[in-house]
Each structure stands twice: as C-alpha cells, then as structure tokens.
Amino acid sequence: MAEIAEALDDQRDVLLEGAPGTGKTLSALVPALEYAQRTDKTVVITTNVHQQMRQFVSDARAITQEEPVRAVVFKGKSSMCHIDVEYQECQTLRDTTRTLVEKEEERAELTEQAEALLDRIREGAEGAGEARSAVTDELDTVESELEDLRDGNVCEHYYNNLVGSNDEFFEWLFADVRTPEEIYEYAEERQLCGYELLKEGMEAVDLVVCNYHHLLDPNIREQFFRWLGREPEDVVTVFDEAHNIESAARDHASRALTENTLEEALSELEDADDSRAEPAENVLSAFLGALRATYDDALGFGEREQVSDDWHDLSIANSDRRDDLTLAFLERYEGRGIDAEVDLALQLGRTLDREYEEAYREGEATTRTECQTLQAAQFVASWMADGGKLGQHPLCSVRRDSGTDEVYGRAELYTCIPREVTETLFEEVHASILMSATLRPFDVLEDVLGVEDPATMAYGLEYPEDRRRTLAVEAPALFSSDRADPDTQLAIADVLADAARFTPGNALLFFPSYAEAERYHDRLRGRSDVESQLLLDGSDVDTESLRQSFVESDDATLFTSLWGTLAEGVSFDGDDARTVAVVGVPYPHLSERLEAIQDAYDRAYDERDGAGWRYAVEIPTIRKTRQALGRVIRAPDDFGVRLLVDKRYTQKSVEMGKYGVRESFPREERAELVDVAPTKLKFSMLNFYADLDAYEGPPPRP
After folding, report:
1. Burial of 379 (0-12, 13-18, 19+ CB in 10 A)
2. Which residues form a coiled coil (predicted)?
3. Which of 4, 267, 320, 563 is a good FRET partner for 50, with 20 to 30 A between their CA atoms?
C-alpha cells in the first residue's frame, strides 16, 4: 500500500500483479481513497468481470463501514431503464420532459404574477391592468405550449424526479453502497427514474464502481466525468483484471457497417426531399454494391453454403495497396467526388436525425427513429480516411440471416493496436492503477497500452509452498497437427485418468478448445480406472449450472476450454477443486484478426525481432494459462496440484525455439515448476496429497 501511495503522490501510474486471493483490490483501493480524499479527487474502479463487480461492492461496503466514504455503483441506461427505450429515445424523452416541467414552472410563476396584479387592480394601482393583460397573454401562450408538450412523448418516471423532492432517495443511496439492481427496485416502487437519480448522485462522490465501457469509450468517458463533476485530472482510475484491457479496447475502437444498414439508408434517401439525397445515394449505393461484390469474390467454392448465423471473416486486405472493398468502391463510384459527396451525406444525415428527434418529441412518432444515412455516411467517411492507417485492419464478414436464410455482409475497421484507445485515457487522468494476477511482463503491457514510466510491483503466491505442487508433465506436445494422432491421444488420456484418480476431490481440466475437451471427456468416459463423475462444458452449455453441479460434487472432473468463461473471474475455493490442469499450450485460433494484430505489432515495433508473435500470441496465451492455474489455491489454508500437461512447459522446451513456453513464465513461477514423466505423475500426486492427509479413507493404489 505504501508503494502505491507514494506513486500516486508522484502522479505515476501503477502496474500491480498479485496472486489470486492476496487482496489486490483493497491494497489498491485503500491508498487510492486516502489520496483522493486528501487531494479532492474521485476514485473510479472498473472491471469487465461480473463476479469481480460483486466483489468490489462487498469491498466498498467494508470500507464505508470504517470510513465516511460516499460510493456508488454505476451501470448503463439499458440495464436500469423502467420503460425499456433505446438511448436516443431516452435522450429525447428526457429533454421533452424537462421542457414540460420548466413550462409548468413558468405557468405557475405567471399565474402567481397574474393573481398579484389582480390584487393591485383591486387596490387601484396605476398600470396594473395593462401589466396583468400582458401576463395573461403570455400565460395563454404557455398553456398552449404545455398542451402541445403533453400531446408529445414524455417520461413519467423522470417527470416524478423533477417535480418531487429527492432528498429521501439520496439519504437512502448514501446510507450504504447500493447496487444498480437495488436502485432500480427502489425507484420502480416509487415510479422514479433510478438511472437519472443515480447520475445526479454521482457528483463529487469519493468512489464509483463501473465497467470498462464507461472509461474506454472516449465519448462515454467525457459524459461520465461530467456526471461526476470532475475534470479528467481529478480522477484516479483503478482497473481490475487489467490483462483484459487490450481486447476490450479493441472491441470499443472497432467500427462496423452491415449491408442491412446500407439498404435502410438508401430507402431513407428515396423518401428524402432534399438536394443532398442524390450525392448521398451515389456514395452509399456504390459502397453497398462494392461490399456485395467483395464478399461474393472472397467466398471460395462451397464456402457460401457453410456460412452460419455467426459472423465469418473473409480476407480482403492487401500488402501493397488498399483493400479489395475500397478498390471495388472506387471502381463503382460514379459521383462528383467521394469526399465532397460523403460530406453532403453527413450533412443530410444530421438534418434527418434532427427531424426524427423532433417528430418523437412532438408525439408524431411513437419511437425515436435512428438515422441510417448518418450511420452509414459516418462509417464510409472513417473507412476512406482510416482504412489504410497502421493498426487499422479492413475486414469483410458474412453471416446467414436466420429468418430469410440469405447470406449478407458487413464491412469492419478492426483496431489492432489498443494503445490508440488507451494511451489518451492514461494521459488525461491523474493516475491509474492496473492490477491483475497476470500482468507480467510489464514492458509488454506498457507498450501495448501506452502506459508511460509506471511504478511496477509484483507479489507472488505468498501461501505455504508445501501446500501446493506445480508439475510440468512431459506429455507429447499437443500441436494442432498432432491432435488426431492415436498415440498422442492415448498418452494424454492416461495422464488425465491418473489426475482424476489421484485427486482427493474435484479436478478441473482446461483444453485449447471445447472440441479437445469433448475428445478427452469421451476417451475417459469408458475407462474402468476412472470412477470420477465426468462433466463436459461446451459453447452451448449453461456454464453456471454446470459449475454449480461441479462444486456440489465431491468427486467430479470437469472438462472445459481455456477460452471459455471458467478460466478466469471464477473462484474454485477449498473443496470446489483440488487439481487444475492445463492440457496443451492453448494458443488462440489462427484467424484473420490475429494475423492482423501480429502484423501491426511487427510494423509498430520493427526494431524488436518477433514482436508480433510475442505481443499477439505468446504473452496472451501464457496469461490465459496462468489465469487458469489460478482458479485453485485461493487462500492460505487451501491446497492443491497444478498441472501443465505438455512437454513445451518442461525444461526440454528450450530446444523447441519459440514454441517452448517455459521461459515465458515469471521467474519465481518457473522455479516452482517440477518436471515429471507421465508414468510418474500418479506417484507425485499420491505422495503430495497423502502427506497432507487429504484422502478420506485409504489413498488410491498406484
């Protein structure tokens, strides 16, 4: 805590790695809150893991019981709206409702003035009659405006916020740390808008708990800080599970436009009585035609028939020129200049968008229409301006419409280098604390996210070493090309059978994919030497129900993917799981996007040999592996065995070049790795658990 406090005093960012269960959250929050209260700052703590959000609330409540800290938990409008409208509709309703209340207040003031002037007329005051006549004329105008507003669309919940006293709500809000669900329930019972009340209550609070979305999106962040009543330099941000910022930032920065949106925009333009409609149609129709032609050309023989309702990426980028979609667009376009006509399309889109808002405001429309022309024109403008920049990768994807069974496409600008999103954030705020159990190597994180000269600190698993074993099993390397080999499958199945048999309780097995998890689940299911209950996870499985069944068992083996939801953010404490295994080196699936990320890093850091592979593949994979190993041994009195089943984790991996991954682990974790032959694994596990008297009854016989 002292190191973090010192870094905050120096206005330095902090990179904090701490093993699971070591109290990272409180270690960061306590000095951050102390510093914030001393210097009049606000702390924003954020995560993208739902379970961790609940832990934040618990930690914040513990702090508020000891210190006078005002804390709120914030979620987006969509999860708190009482009437279930979209964001733009909500904005219009809010503005209309506020105008209605202001007009009612104006009417009340004019009515009071008219009554006072009537008294003065009765008293014979000179000029009172003329003044009252002017007031009543104005009052008639306001009454007419009010009638129009009542005929329009308003939000009754927000109306009640504006006309009543909200003191009781804020007293309740700050009496504890309230969840968004509790706020919604409180507001629903009283027909109030909990979301708007929460926004009002955020100003100048000490602590806000939120998700990544509110900080990584620049537009939302600007609004968010405005609701806090803070400038960015008055905010200290704390990111939990910070190893996930990289992928989350890519998701926030990437932009996409579907074929359907383009079609809707062109239909919108047909009805637009505006001279700008023709140039807008020139641009958007050419882009739509180019999109269709591009994915038709990119789909190989028989590939269209295999397209499902999931987006399927097609390669359209070129190393020596613009992408195929841009080239097709330029070939098809026949207007008077793309830049000029895109600008006219943007102007028309903004005009139409204002008209839609006015129609909804006046009650002429029951929903707030989104302007498809504006969305399409904004995307085409970005595509042409940014599509050739380093770190922006043009993509074309297709999917099958489940309703029509037709294939349709989308264009996407995929952001490969996340620091384009995150660097500005870390520069703007006073300081940031990034924490996770798997942040290292710190230099890679600094490069990837754009964190300059941070204070770095790492704390390993401080629990007793004699209560854990980390074994690197010299099993065959599970390269994708060798996964179908019968001898490889048999060798790994034998290892997993021993792991299940010699675990006194539950075993948790992670694989490179759900398909591999299913393969070994099926191989062990028929074996007489495996008496454990075998549970299989999958992409179509209710994982939470499966997890509950697993932890309620006292002798189960769960097969899942390392890329699924159980590999991080989920604790298996105590008897929930005693052995955890990572089978193979779970490199991410090779895809157009992954190759684009590798290429972008290679070009961005061309002076560093192999930066693309290291930054895009190796380090994320090892972080995933370390996250999975961290699902067990979560407290000082816990115990268990952690298995890495693949010879690429052993000391022999130094002979395997970049495919040997042992050296990618932090030094103290490498020191704990004990190489073991597959046939000796059962003896290692038997001795470890027997020494701890972990077996109920006699231990299994080797």
Report:
1. buried
2. 93-152
3. 4
